[in-house]
Amino acid sequence: MNIEVSCYGVLEQGCGTPAVSARLSGEQVSVAEVLEQLCGQFPELREYLPSTAYAVGDELVDRQYCLRPGETLVLLPPVSGG
User: Fold this and answer.
1) Distance of CA 7 to CAs 12, 21, 69, Å?
2) Mean pLDDT in each 10-residue stretch from start to end of the chain (82 residues)?
């Protein structure tokens, strides 16, 4: 299954692009599995994941959420205020 991933803020900087594709085998793929693959490609992302939110469409999802074909996973970085 091919999953599109949109990244924002520091996560976009870590990937070097606002969107990446993750190709995983299987008919059901969890957010956690996509994140593991991305961290293999972009190890610097790992430090931000504990405070990153995940969304599909207009809904926040957790790491156990199973993505369906055609869905885009959005990684929302931690927000720092001032």
Assistant:
1) 5, 11, 19
2) 92 91 87 94 92 94 93 86 52
